[in-house]
Protein backbone atom coordinates (compact mmCIF):
# COMPACT_ATOMS: atom_id res chain seq x y z
CA UNK A 1 0.00 0.00 0.00
CA UNK A 2 1.24 3.46 -0.89
CA UNK A 3 0.55 6.15 1.66
CA UNK A 4 0.19 9.80 0.80
CA UNK A 5 0.63 12.96 2.81
CA UNK A 6 -2.12 13.64 5.31
CA UNK A 7 -4.23 16.72 4.64
CA UNK A 8 -6.86 17.35 7.32
CA UNK A 9 -10.09 19.18 6.50
CA UNK A 10 -10.43 22.80 7.53
CA UNK A 11 -12.68 22.79 10.60
CA UNK A 12 -14.02 25.46 12.91
CA UNK A 13 -13.22 24.15 16.38
CA UNK A 14 -15.83 25.23 18.93
CA UNK A 15 -15.70 22.30 21.31
CA UNK A 16 -13.97 21.96 24.69
CA UNK A 17 -10.55 21.95 23.04
CA UNK A 18 -8.41 22.04 21.10
CA UNK A 19 -9.45 25.49 19.97
CA UNK A 20 -8.80 27.21 16.66
CA UNK A 21 -5.09 27.99 16.40
CA UNK A 22 -4.04 31.52 15.56
CA UNK A 23 -2.44 31.59 12.07
CA UNK A 24 0.54 33.41 13.58
CA UNK A 25 1.07 30.42 15.85
CA UNK A 26 0.91 27.93 12.97
CA UNK A 27 3.39 30.06 11.04
CA UNK A 28 5.73 30.13 14.03
CA UNK A 29 5.82 26.32 14.09
CA UNK A 30 7.18 26.24 10.56
CA UNK A 31 10.32 28.22 11.45
CA UNK A 32 13.67 26.41 11.21
CA UNK A 33 14.40 23.88 13.92
CA UNK A 34 17.51 24.60 15.98
CA UNK A 35 19.15 22.70 18.81
CA UNK A 36 17.48 22.63 22.20
CA UNK A 37 20.71 23.88 23.83
CA UNK A 38 21.42 26.49 21.15
CA UNK A 39 22.13 29.85 22.85
CA UNK A 40 19.42 31.49 20.74
CA UNK A 41 16.89 28.89 21.86
CA UNK A 42 17.97 29.36 25.48
CA UNK A 43 17.27 33.07 25.12
CA UNK A 44 13.78 32.24 23.86
CA UNK A 45 13.25 29.94 26.87
CA UNK A 46 13.96 32.87 29.17
CA UNK A 47 11.46 35.00 27.26
CA UNK A 48 8.93 32.17 27.51
CA UNK A 49 9.20 32.16 31.30
CA UNK A 50 8.54 35.89 31.40
CA UNK A 51 5.54 35.58 29.10
CA UNK A 52 4.08 32.77 31.19
CA UNK A 53 4.61 34.79 34.34
CA UNK A 54 2.55 37.54 32.72
CA UNK A 55 -0.21 35.12 31.67
CA UNK A 56 -0.38 33.61 35.18
CA UNK A 57 0.10 37.01 36.85
CA UNK A 58 2.97 35.72 38.97
CA UNK A 59 6.60 36.37 39.77
CA UNK A 60 7.25 32.70 40.55
CA UNK A 61 10.72 31.74 39.37
CA UNK A 62 9.58 28.15 38.84
CA UNK A 63 7.27 28.89 35.90
CA UNK A 64 7.74 26.86 32.73
CA UNK A 65 5.98 24.77 30.07
CA UNK A 66 6.06 21.01 30.67
CA UNK A 67 6.90 19.18 27.44
CA UNK A 68 3.59 17.32 27.36
CA UNK A 69 -0.15 18.15 27.46
CA UNK A 70 -2.21 19.43 30.41
CA UNK A 71 -2.61 15.96 31.92
CA UNK A 72 1.17 15.90 32.37
CA UNK A 73 0.99 19.32 33.98
CA UNK A 74 -1.47 17.83 36.47
CA UNK A 75 0.84 14.92 37.14
CA UNK A 76 3.84 17.25 37.50
CA UNK A 77 2.10 19.05 40.35
CA UNK A 78 1.05 15.90 42.16
CA UNK A 79 4.21 13.81 41.86
CA UNK A 80 6.38 16.69 43.06
CA UNK A 81 4.17 17.90 45.94
CA UNK A 82 2.51 14.70 47.19
CA UNK A 83 4.37 11.87 48.93
CA UNK A 84 3.37 8.38 50.07
CA UNK A 85 1.29 8.56 53.23
CA UNK A 86 0.06 12.13 52.68
CA UNK A 87 -3.60 13.08 52.95
CA UNK A 88 -4.92 15.24 50.10
CA UNK A 89 -8.35 16.86 50.02
CA UNK A 90 -9.63 16.73 46.43
CA UNK A 91 -12.62 18.84 45.39
CA UNK A 92 -14.51 17.16 42.55
CA UNK A 93 -17.30 18.86 40.58
CA UNK A 94 -16.61 17.24 37.21
CA UNK A 95 -14.30 14.91 35.30
CA UNK A 96 -11.02 16.50 36.26
CA UNK A 97 -11.49 16.34 40.02
CA UNK A 98 -11.76 12.59 39.46
CA UNK A 99 -8.45 12.59 37.64
CA UNK A 100 -6.88 14.45 40.55
CA UNK A 101 -8.00 11.64 42.82
CA UNK A 102 -6.28 9.12 40.51
CA UNK A 103 -3.04 11.10 40.77
CA UNK A 104 -3.22 11.21 44.56
CA UNK A 105 -3.69 7.45 44.77
CA UNK A 106 -0.85 6.76 42.34
CA UNK A 107 1.42 8.88 44.54
CA UNK A 108 0.67 6.50 47.43
CA UNK A 109 -1.35 9.14 49.27
CA UNK A 110 -4.92 9.11 50.62
CA UNK A 111 -7.56 11.26 48.90
CA UNK A 112 -10.39 12.82 50.88
CA UNK A 113 -13.14 13.69 48.42
CA UNK A 114 -15.28 16.84 48.55
CA UNK A 115 -18.04 16.21 46.04
CA UNK A 116 -20.24 18.81 44.36
CA UNK A 117 -22.91 18.42 41.71
CA UNK A 118 -21.70 18.66 38.13
CA UNK A 119 -22.43 22.17 36.89
CA UNK A 120 -21.91 23.72 40.33
CA UNK A 121 -18.71 25.36 41.63
CA UNK A 122 -16.76 23.88 44.52
CA UNK A 123 -18.57 24.69 47.78
CA UNK A 124 -16.16 26.51 50.16
CA UNK A 125 -18.08 25.35 53.24
CA UNK A 126 -17.69 21.71 52.23
CA UNK A 127 -13.94 22.25 51.92
CA UNK A 128 -13.83 23.92 55.33
CA UNK A 129 -15.71 21.00 56.87
CA UNK A 130 -13.44 18.43 55.24
CA UNK A 131 -10.28 20.14 56.49
CA UNK A 132 -11.68 20.34 60.03
CA UNK A 133 -12.45 16.62 59.86
CA UNK A 134 -8.99 15.77 58.47
CA UNK A 135 -6.42 18.00 60.21
CA UNK A 136 -3.62 15.77 58.93
CA UNK A 137 -4.21 16.94 55.33
CA UNK A 138 -1.22 18.63 53.71
CA UNK A 139 -2.66 19.56 50.30
CA UNK A 140 -5.91 20.73 48.73
CA UNK A 141 -6.57 20.22 45.01
CA UNK A 142 -9.39 21.69 42.94
CA UNK A 143 -10.32 22.77 39.43
CA UNK A 144 -10.59 26.47 38.66
CA UNK A 145 -12.30 26.08 35.27
CA UNK A 146 -14.05 22.70 34.94
CA UNK A 147 -13.94 21.76 31.26
CA UNK A 148 -16.59 19.06 31.59
CA UNK A 149 -19.27 21.47 32.83
CA UNK A 150 -18.24 25.10 32.26
CA UNK A 151 -18.32 25.90 35.98
CA UNK A 152 -15.85 28.36 37.50
CA UNK A 153 -14.83 27.99 41.15
CA UNK A 154 -13.60 30.74 43.48
CA UNK A 155 -9.84 30.20 43.55
CA UNK A 156 -9.03 32.89 46.11
CA UNK A 157 -11.65 31.79 48.64
CA UNK A 158 -10.72 28.10 48.36
CA UNK A 159 -7.01 28.91 48.60
CA UNK A 160 -7.53 31.06 51.70
CA UNK A 161 -9.41 28.22 53.40
CA UNK A 162 -6.66 25.72 52.55
CA UNK A 163 -3.94 28.03 53.87
CA UNK A 164 -5.79 28.61 57.15
CA UNK A 165 -5.57 24.87 57.67
CA UNK A 166 -1.87 24.68 56.80
CA UNK A 167 -2.31 23.14 53.34
CA UNK A 168 -0.77 23.97 49.98
CA UNK A 169 -3.10 24.15 46.98
CA UNK A 170 -2.86 22.57 43.53
CA UNK A 171 -5.09 24.30 40.97
CA UNK A 172 -6.21 23.07 37.55
CA UNK A 173 -6.68 26.00 35.17
CA UNK A 174 -6.29 24.17 31.86
CA UNK A 175 -9.37 25.90 30.44
CA UNK A 176 -9.01 29.06 32.52
CA UNK A 177 -5.62 30.54 31.58
CA UNK A 178 -6.04 33.45 29.17
CA UNK A 179 -9.83 33.27 29.10
CA UNK A 180 -11.00 34.31 32.54
CA UNK A 181 -9.53 36.23 35.47
CA UNK A 182 -6.63 34.40 37.08
CA UNK A 183 -4.15 36.08 39.48
CA UNK A 184 -1.77 33.50 40.88
CA UNK A 185 0.20 35.78 43.21
CA UNK A 186 -2.69 37.92 44.42
CA UNK A 187 -4.75 34.81 45.18
CA UNK A 188 -1.88 32.97 46.87
CA UNK A 189 -1.92 29.91 44.62
CA UNK A 190 0.92 27.49 45.44
CA UNK A 191 0.94 25.31 42.31
CA UNK A 192 -1.03 25.59 39.10
CA UNK A 193 -1.09 23.96 35.69
CA UNK A 194 -2.75 24.73 32.37
CA UNK A 195 -2.69 23.67 28.71
CA UNK A 196 -1.57 25.23 25.46
CA UNK A 197 -4.59 24.21 23.37
CA UNK A 198 -7.43 26.15 25.01
CA UNK A 199 -7.57 29.92 25.50
CA UNK A 200 -3.93 30.38 24.49
CA UNK A 201 -4.86 29.31 20.93
CA UNK A 202 -1.76 27.18 20.57
CA UNK A 203 -1.44 23.60 19.37
CA UNK A 204 -1.91 20.80 21.92
CA UNK A 205 1.08 19.25 23.64
CA UNK A 206 2.44 21.70 26.22
CA UNK A 207 1.42 22.40 29.80
CA UNK A 208 2.39 25.69 31.48
CA UNK A 209 2.96 25.28 35.23
CA UNK A 210 3.93 27.60 38.07
CA UNK A 211 5.08 26.91 41.66
CA UNK A 212 5.56 29.47 44.42
CA UNK A 213 8.31 29.45 47.06
CA UNK A 214 6.26 27.39 49.53
CA UNK A 215 5.76 24.71 46.89
CA UNK A 216 9.46 24.77 45.98
CA UNK A 217 10.39 24.33 49.64
CA UNK A 218 8.17 21.26 49.85
CA UNK A 219 9.82 19.81 46.75
CA UNK A 220 13.28 20.41 48.24
CA UNK A 221 12.34 18.79 51.56
CA UNK A 222 10.88 15.58 50.10
CA UNK A 223 11.78 12.33 51.88
CA UNK A 224 10.89 10.18 48.89
CA UNK A 225 12.26 10.40 45.38
CA UNK A 226 9.74 11.77 42.86
CA UNK A 227 8.14 8.71 41.24
CA UNK A 228 8.46 10.13 37.71
CA UNK A 229 11.95 10.78 36.39
CA UNK A 230 10.70 12.85 33.45
CA UNK A 231 8.49 15.11 35.59
CA UNK A 232 10.89 15.50 38.54
CA UNK A 233 11.22 19.27 38.80
CA UNK A 234 14.52 19.07 40.63
CA UNK A 235 15.90 17.64 37.37
CA UNK A 236 13.84 19.67 34.91
CA UNK A 237 14.98 22.92 36.48
CA UNK A 238 18.52 22.09 35.49
CA UNK A 239 17.31 22.65 31.94
CA UNK A 240 14.76 25.42 32.51
CA UNK A 241 16.76 27.26 35.18
CA UNK A 242 18.22 30.72 34.68
CA UNK A 243 21.53 31.58 33.06
CA UNK A 244 23.16 30.43 29.86
CA UNK A 245 24.48 27.10 31.19
CA UNK A 246 21.74 24.45 31.00
CA UNK A 247 21.95 20.78 31.97
CA UNK A 248 20.60 18.37 29.37
CA UNK A 249 17.37 16.77 30.57
CA UNK A 250 15.32 16.00 27.46
CA UNK A 251 15.03 17.19 23.89
CA UNK A 252 12.44 19.91 24.14
CA UNK A 253 9.65 20.07 21.50
CA UNK A 254 11.38 22.98 19.83
CA UNK A 255 8.87 23.98 17.17
CA UNK A 256 5.95 23.52 19.56
CA UNK A 257 7.70 25.92 21.93
CA UNK A 258 8.04 28.44 19.10
CA UNK A 259 4.26 28.17 18.81
CA UNK A 260 3.62 28.69 22.51
CA UNK A 261 5.99 31.64 22.59
CA UNK A 262 4.10 33.26 19.71
CA UNK A 263 0.71 32.60 21.31
CA UNK A 264 1.90 34.30 24.50
CA UNK A 265 3.25 37.25 22.53
CA UNK A 266 -0.19 37.59 20.93
CA UNK A 267 -1.79 37.50 24.39
CA UNK A 268 0.57 40.16 25.66
CA UNK A 269 -0.13 42.37 22.65
CA UNK A 270 -3.87 42.16 23.26
CA UNK A 271 -3.52 42.62 27.01
CA UNK A 272 -4.65 40.05 29.52
CA UNK A 273 -7.66 41.96 30.82
CA UNK A 274 -8.72 42.75 27.24
CA UNK A 275 -8.60 39.03 26.47
CA UNK A 276 -10.79 38.27 29.49
CA UNK A 277 -13.27 40.95 28.37
CA UNK A 278 -13.32 39.61 24.79
CA UNK A 279 -14.22 36.12 25.97
CA UNK A 280 -17.02 37.56 28.10
CA UNK A 281 -18.39 39.67 25.23
CA UNK A 282 -18.48 36.72 22.81
CA UNK A 283 -20.22 34.60 25.44
CA UNK A 284 -22.94 37.23 25.89
CA UNK A 285 -23.62 37.30 22.14
CA UNK A 286 -23.73 33.50 21.96
CA UNK A 287 -26.09 33.35 24.92
CA UNK A 288 -28.45 35.87 23.34
CA UNK A 289 -28.70 33.70 20.24
CA UNK A 290 -29.18 30.50 22.23
CA UNK A 291 -31.98 32.15 24.21
CA UNK A 292 -34.00 32.72 21.03
CA UNK A 293 -33.85 28.97 20.34
CA UNK A 294 -35.03 28.14 23.85
CA UNK A 295 -31.64 26.72 24.78
CA UNK A 296 -30.31 27.18 28.31
CA UNK A 297 -27.05 26.41 30.12
CA UNK A 298 -26.51 24.14 33.09
CA UNK A 299 -24.30 26.58 35.02
CA UNK A 300 -25.74 29.58 36.87
CA UNK A 301 -24.67 32.93 35.35
CA UNK A 302 -22.49 33.94 38.30
CA UNK A 303 -20.43 30.73 38.06
CA UNK A 304 -20.36 30.35 34.28
CA UNK A 305 -17.16 30.21 32.23
CA UNK A 306 -17.54 32.41 29.14
CA UNK A 307 -15.16 30.18 27.19
CA UNK A 308 -16.94 26.87 27.87
CA UNK A 309 -20.72 26.81 27.45
CA UNK A 310 -22.53 23.65 28.54
CA UNK A 311 -25.90 23.89 26.73
CA UNK A 312 -28.85 21.67 27.63
CA UNK A 313 -30.10 19.44 24.82
CA UNK A 314 -33.85 20.01 24.28
CA UNK A 315 -36.26 17.13 24.84
CA UNK A 316 -36.72 14.99 21.73
CA UNK A 317 -33.49 16.13 20.09
CA UNK A 318 -30.80 13.61 19.14
CA UNK A 319 -27.73 15.45 20.38
CA UNK A 320 -25.27 13.20 18.52
CA UNK A 321 -27.14 13.72 15.24
CA UNK A 322 -26.90 17.48 15.70
CA UNK A 323 -23.15 17.29 16.23
CA UNK A 324 -22.78 15.01 13.20
CA UNK A 325 -24.73 17.39 10.96
CA UNK A 326 -22.63 20.34 12.15
CA UNK A 327 -19.44 18.45 11.39
CA UNK A 328 -20.54 16.93 8.06
CA UNK A 329 -22.28 19.94 6.56
CA UNK A 330 -20.57 22.90 8.23
CA UNK A 331 -17.15 21.53 9.24
CA UNK A 332 -18.03 22.81 12.71
CA UNK A 333 -17.04 20.86 15.82
CA UNK A 334 -18.81 21.23 19.15
CA UNK A 335 -18.41 18.87 22.09
CA UNK A 336 -20.56 16.22 23.72
CA UNK A 337 -21.26 15.86 27.43
CA UNK A 338 -19.15 13.61 29.64
CA UNK A 339 -20.04 11.32 32.55
CA UNK A 340 -23.53 12.01 33.92
CA UNK A 341 -23.95 14.79 31.34
CA UNK A 342 -23.42 12.48 28.35
CA UNK A 343 -26.31 12.90 25.93
CA UNK A 344 -27.68 15.81 27.97
CA UNK A 345 -25.49 18.74 26.93
CA UNK A 346 -23.43 20.18 24.14
CA UNK A 347 -20.21 21.91 25.07
CA UNK A 348 -19.60 24.99 22.93
CA UNK A 349 -16.16 26.50 23.27
CA UNK A 350 -15.26 30.15 22.74
CA UNK A 351 -11.55 29.95 23.38
CA UNK A 352 -8.67 32.19 22.45
CA UNK A 353 -8.49 32.98 18.73
CA UNK A 354 -11.84 31.19 18.31
CA UNK A 355 -13.63 33.63 20.63
CA UNK A 356 -14.69 35.99 17.88
CA UNK A 357 -17.81 37.39 16.26
CA UNK A 358 -17.47 35.34 13.07
CA UNK A 359 -17.47 32.04 14.99
CA UNK A 360 -20.39 33.03 17.20
CA UNK A 361 -22.63 33.98 14.26
CA UNK A 362 -21.54 30.94 12.26
CA UNK A 363 -22.24 28.56 15.14
CA UNK A 364 -25.67 30.04 15.84
CA UNK A 365 -26.73 29.84 12.20
CA UNK A 366 -25.49 26.26 11.84
CA UNK A 367 -27.14 25.21 15.10
CA UNK A 368 -30.46 26.68 13.94
CA UNK A 369 -30.21 24.60 10.76
CA UNK A 370 -29.41 21.42 12.68
CA UNK A 371 -32.30 21.87 15.10
CA UNK A 372 -34.79 22.72 12.35
CA UNK A 373 -33.72 19.49 10.64
CA UNK A 374 -34.87 17.68 13.80
CA UNK A 375 -38.25 19.38 13.72
CA UNK A 376 -37.58 22.06 16.31
CA UNK A 377 -39.94 25.04 16.28
CA UNK A 378 -37.33 27.66 15.47
CA UNK A 379 -37.52 30.72 13.24
CA UNK A 380 -34.32 30.72 11.16
CA UNK A 381 -32.28 33.87 11.49
CA UNK A 382 -33.53 34.98 14.89
CA UNK A 383 -30.53 33.67 16.79
CA UNK A 384 -28.04 35.45 14.55
CA UNK A 385 -30.10 38.64 14.75
CA UNK A 386 -30.11 38.47 18.55
CA UNK A 387 -26.36 38.06 18.66
CA UNK A 388 -25.88 40.92 16.22
CA UNK A 389 -28.01 43.10 18.48
CA UNK A 390 -25.61 42.41 21.33
CA UNK A 391 -22.77 43.48 19.07
CA UNK A 392 -24.71 46.65 18.24
CA UNK A 393 -25.11 45.80 14.57
UniProtKB/TrEMBL annotation:
Statement: the UniProt record of this protein carries the keyword Transmembrane: no
A GO biological process held by the record: glycine biosynthetic process, by transamination of glyoxylate
EC number of the protein: 2.6.1.44
Sorted UniProt keywords: Aminotransferase, Pyridoxal phosphate, Transferase
Needed cofactors: pyridoxal 5'-phosphate
Residue numbers bearing the N6-(pyridoxal phosphate)lysine modification: 198
Enzyme superclass (EC): transferase
Residue ranges of every copy of the Aminotransferase class V domain listed in the record: 41-337
Highest rank taxon of the organism: Bacteria
GO molecular function: alanine-glyoxylate transaminase activity; L-serine-pyruvate transaminase activity
CDD domains named among the record's database cross-references: AGAT_like (cd06451)
Residues the record lists as binding substrate: 347
Gene3D superfamilies: Aspartate Aminotransferase, domain 1, Type I PLP-dependent aspartate aminotransferase-like (Major domain)
Family the UniProt entry places it in: Belongs to the class-V pyridoxal-phosphate-dependent aminotransferase family.
Protein name: Alanine--glyoxylate transaminase
Species assigned in the record: Thioalkalivibrio sulfidiphilus (strain HL-EbGR7)
High-level lineage: Bacteria, Pseudomonadati, Pseudomonadota, Gammaproteobacteria, Chromatiales
Amino acid sequence: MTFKSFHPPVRTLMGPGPSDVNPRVLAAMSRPTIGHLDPVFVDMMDEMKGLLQYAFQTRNALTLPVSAPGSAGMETCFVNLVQPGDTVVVCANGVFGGRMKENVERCGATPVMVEDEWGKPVDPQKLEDALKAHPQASTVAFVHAETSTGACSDVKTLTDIAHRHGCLVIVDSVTGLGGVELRVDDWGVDAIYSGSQKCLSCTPGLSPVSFNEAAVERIKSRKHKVQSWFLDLSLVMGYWGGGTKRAYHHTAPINALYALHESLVVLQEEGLENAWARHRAQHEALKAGLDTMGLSMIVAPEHRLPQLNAVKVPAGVDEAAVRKLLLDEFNLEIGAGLGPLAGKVWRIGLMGYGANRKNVLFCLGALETALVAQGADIVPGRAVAAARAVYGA
